[in-house]
Amino acid sequence: MFYEEDLKNKIQRDREEHRKKPLKDKDDDNRPEGGGGDGEIRETTESTVDPESGLFHKGEHKEVFAYVSQTACDQHGWVLGYSVHKGNELDSRTFIGIYNRIKELRIKTIVADAGYKTPAIARLLINNGITPMIPYNKYLSKSKNL
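The structure assignment produced for this chain is given below.
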């Protein structure tokens, strides 16, 4: 806790020196439920049949309410563990659910797709002695004229 407070104070002093607005505390920003940092209330689409499902974007134009399953397999394809989540949750957010199910199996290396490439996941794996193998993704611009 002390380190976080010290870091916050240093950041605030630096912002003052550079004539920037002070940062808001997450607890004091008074954002409405489900709203972003801009104060705007965002509508969420919820299924009338299954409110626990999430809106999954299938291709560019099709949207369906669905669930996704995260599955961990060994090198032979045997399932070691799984977890089920709403269809609109990101892989990086659902990783901890599957990781908690398999972490006791003395895994040495985890191979995952780019959806799991976050500093938090890499740090968690490295701190637990697991080598993460996650692909590098080059910068993709909206323009196809690279």
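Interim note for the steering committee: The first strand starts at residue 54 and ends at 58. The mean pLDDT is 81.
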